[in-house]
Amino acid sequence: MMYKIDQARLGELFAAIAEKKDLFLPVKKADQTDFALWTKEAEVDLDTLRTVKSPKDCFFPQSETLYNTSLEEGKLSIDAAALCDRDFVVFGMRACDVQAVKVLDNVFLADPVDTYYAARREHAVLVAGACHEPEETCFCKVFGIDAAAPAADVATWRVGEALYWKALTKKGEALSEVVKEHLTPAEESAVEEAQTQIRSIIDKLPYSHLKLDVFKETPMMELFDSDRWEEMYKPCLACGTCTFVCPTCQCYDIRDFKTKDGVQRYRCWDSCMYSDFTMMAHGNMRTSQMQRFRQRFMHKLVYYPDNYEGMFSCVGCGRCVSKCPAALNIVKVIKTMGGEG
Amino acid sequence: MQRELMNRAKELLIDETVVRVLGWKKGDLGYNHEPAYFDSPEELEENFVYDAFCGANLSKYMIEAGKQEGKTLVFLKPCDTYSFNQLLKEHRIKRENTYIIGVGCRGNLDIDKIKAAGIKGIESVDADGDMLKVKTVYGEKEMPFEEALLERCLACKGKTHMVYDELIGAGEKEEAGPKGNRFDRVSELESLSPEERFAFWRSELSKCIRCNACRNACPACSCLKCVFDSNQFDSNQKANADTFEEQMFHIIRAFHVAGRCTDCGECSRVCPQGIPLHLLNRKFIKDINTLYGEYQAGEDTDSLAPLTNYTFEDAEPGIVAERGRK
Amino acid sequence: MGECTCATGTGNKKQDILIPMIGVITDIRTETPDVKTFRVVGRDGKKLFEHMPGQCAMVSVPGVGEAMFSITSSPTNTQFQEFSIKRCGVLTDCLHGMSPGDEVTVRGPYGNAFPVETALKGENLLFIAGGIGLAPLRSVINYVLDKRENYGTVEILYGSRSMEDLVQLKEIQEVWCKTEGVDVYLTIDREQEGWNGHVGFVPSYLKEIGFSTNKTVLVCGPPIMIKFVLSGLMEMGFKREQIYTTLELRMKCGIGKCGRCNIGSKYVCKDGPVFRFDEIDELPPEY
Q1: What does the domain layout of chain A look like in residue ranges?
Q2: In chain C, whose CA is at the least distance from the CA of A219?
Q3: pTM for the complete prediction?
Q4: Checking DSSP bridges between strand A124-129 and strand A88-93, what pairing results, if any?
Q5: Which of A1, A314, B159, C222 has its CA 20 to 30 A from that of B20?
Q6: How many whole angstroms separate alpha carbon A261 and alpha carbon A278?
């Protein structure tokens, strides 16, 4: 069922959601837009196509406490962190980011389930917006994602003065129910023209026609042993920008933080681009940046698909394309390895 | 100028003056050029680029390039030569392993500023004139070159190269000189109350994602192993355990590069969150200038740096308390 | 996302698999100058969990670190688990400084195991270990000795740098050497006073003995030893499908999610640590 709301009244919609659930949405802060908790004062920014960090934080925060330990008279005690128990809505996701959540689900919801992640996923409602003005860095189409019809709990479109709202799942319908007094029924066809428009722009984007066949057809070791890695990695600064802005990177570290009462054991995002990622007391299996660079892209384009029925661990959001300090990115890797379309 | 640079690089490769060339490789979007090594004239012909999107400072790459066999040709813009000199001074680079071509520069562009001006879906950018001509999937757009300049170019140190073996396209003196006082913004922040200033930095630094791009791009951050990468250090290089840590990382980094930072602006250029990190460094530079006399790191390779040199005229430590009282 | 209110809420504290148990160290044996064996039980004095030979567990001292160690005791031991740990980093330094009664955290067991109940059943077994590499194999050896009737011949070739560096020497001499149908071959790298046994590296001793190929081999030791043992076995006519080893990589989660021990499409913590060499041949050489 298609509904609509006047865009000028979105503040009321947000307030209505926030009354019942936590609401995360793109908020502009110090000139940059990232997902943040909605407040009346928040500068909501639905125009920015892509937040700097992906909404991954809402499910898998950059750092989170797993448990606290303390030692008293030689006795250890462990106090597990509470799991998420409050419903929340992530509003303004993009189709690529929604697909990225599925990529994360495959890892975190596989047995043994990551209960921290699972609790957040269970309590989350994903509301995604169609991308009316896709950019040159976008290549979601390559992964079969339709930016004109995001596959979230609720899909939205901004056409003219209105925001169109369509629940696609039970969770989505439940949310529609919560805010129903703010929505009025609308024609399904109201967004069709906008969808056609979006798809025609996407067809014109420079990366929309990349080919991934080479990663499906070439034996893993042939790709691994390719001479091209040596050519590609050199400008890499070994920072973690690509990893941390990536919506699908899911590697993490577990570390200790000493508090005044004991030790807080937390996990935080980690990057396979960092030299200490595989460092052990007695050695390191990836000693060169070439090996680390190769690991990141082999994982996204070969290893992950091998484990998950051909699904790539890249959704074409283009964040690494626009943020890498050395202008390296997965597109250059795909092209260099033979995926020029 | 691109053709001229490319031809000269080819000559130097062919006559074996150098064995490799460190320059910029053409990106596939017209603005995303990457630092790159070229080993043959053919590679240069195919991919070498030099235009207003070659912002990357190649000095730091010379630390690694310099360790390799044979001479490396590196292209340096005027401001890059300060970083190069500073690394020479710190014995991180061997001068004899380097052949420097100083390249002329009319300023480099910030793609984020172009996008912030509402220009989306970029297919190509023509940056030859005073107006940028941008082809996009949404039609042709224009914006003034000046308005898309990188932050660093707004405080240009001038068009003179501090170190080079030869110059190409350089010496356009009429364009030289900073357009504004680079300390204006620092003074503005100084004039705020401590609470306001703290709020400003809290807001900026809370965006930090600890990707370490600033550190890894910074030519002054040349430690073999960073203190933040030590597992003996009760902190973490990849996440902030609390809000104190995000401030600590940047402030410690600013302290570590104080007196050595040439104000090249790479930290702010590469920051994915657009944090004006250069302002922390400029505050140090401004204070050093005030307390020890005008000093520009990287201007030469032999002068003693103010913070590693003692003179009887040096400010007494008590000045800290005095200035803090203001 | 410090502002997320849900995670700081009053949600239940369902035990995630990453949350460890508390283990009490009840005994510490000094094996060699740099290896100690730690006996660990739960606070209730009972075994922490059941495991299979070759599986590992994450042992941690909060505030110092957490790392994966192979469980050296046999599953047939109903009283406790043991870990033989070599001192080589921050965490192992700290563990070596501990005393009986001290507490650590333990979670596991993780990973696959040697297929003692399937592929190895009924087979003749040859164990080849070097130095601390005996740790994971000891679990299998004792399991096999306790269920002797299920397996064919058992031969153990074990070497270390010196006499002092032979781990579990007491058990080897008093139990393994005295068990019927078990042949034990010991060697040390260099001549030493008081040592009447064989002198020389494990791979060369292997060739000197010249085992027949009607057996399955389980090998663990330093990479350089494994490399030469493997080529020795190949020369002797063994097939790669007949040889098992266990890999060691950096691990954080132990459950195939944190990505650290990922090589090729495998996660060593989850899909390993036990691999057959023909399986390893299909992986990128990053171990």
Answers
A1: 2-339
A2: C282
A3: 0.92
A4: parallel
A5: B159
A6: 31
**Maximum CA extent, chain B:** 64
Q: Smallest Cβ distance to C10: which of A82, A112, A302?
A: A82
CB-CB under 8 Å, B243 with C2: yes
- Give helix B243-257 / helix B194-205 axis angle, nearest 10°: 100
Nearest-CA distance C95 → chain B (Å): 17
**Which residues partner with B109 through β-bridges?**
B149
Between B and C, how many CB-CB pairs are < 8 A?
Answer: 3
**Percentage of chain C modeled with pLDDT above 90:** 80
Q: What is the pLDDT of residues C170-223, one digit of tens each?
A: 888 888 888 888 999 999 999 999 999 999 999 999 999 989 999 999 999 988
User: Which H or E run includes A158?
Assistant: strand A154-159
Does any CB of chain A come closer than 8 Å to the CB of residue B173?
A: no
Q: Is residue C59 part of a domain?
A: yes
Strand ranges, E, within chain B: 20-25, 34-38, 72-76, 98-103, 122-126, 131-136, 139-144, 166-168
Distance from CA of A145 to the nearest CA of B (A): 18
pLDDT digits (tens, 9 = 90+) for A278-289: 887 777 888 899
Q: Which of residues 214-243 of B touch C (CB under 8 A)?
A: 231-232, 243
φ, ψ dihedrals at A112, nearest 5°: -75, 135
Q: How many residues does chain A have?
A: 341
| Six token digits for residue B28 | 């596939």
Mean predicted confidence (pLDDT) in C44-59: 95
For residues A316 and A306, give the distance between their C-alpha atoms in angstroms, rounded to a whole number.
Answer: 19
Whether C104 and C199 share a structural domain: no
Contact B20, B37 (CB under 8 A): yes
Pairing relationship of beta strands C243-246 and C216-220 according to DSSP bridges: parallel
Query: Is C166:C129 a contact under the CB 8 Å cutoff?
Result: no
**CA angle centred on C106, ends C102 and C107, rounded to 5°:** 170
User: What's the CA gap between B173 and A295, in Å, rounded?
Assistant: 48
Hey, what are A106's tokens? Answer: 């495959």
- Domain ranges within chain B, ordered by starting residue: 1-108+155-180, 111-148, 181-326
> In whole angstroms, how large is the CA radius of gyration of chain A?
21
Cβ separation C259–A251 shorter than 8 A: yes
- Strands across the sheet with C243-246, in order? C198-199, C182-188, C154-160, C125-130, C216-220, C243-246, C274-276
If asked whether residues C64 and C177 sit together in one domain, one would say: no
- Cβ contacts (< 8 Å) between B243 and chain C: which residues? 2
- Which CATH number does the domain housing residue C224 bear? 3.40.50.80
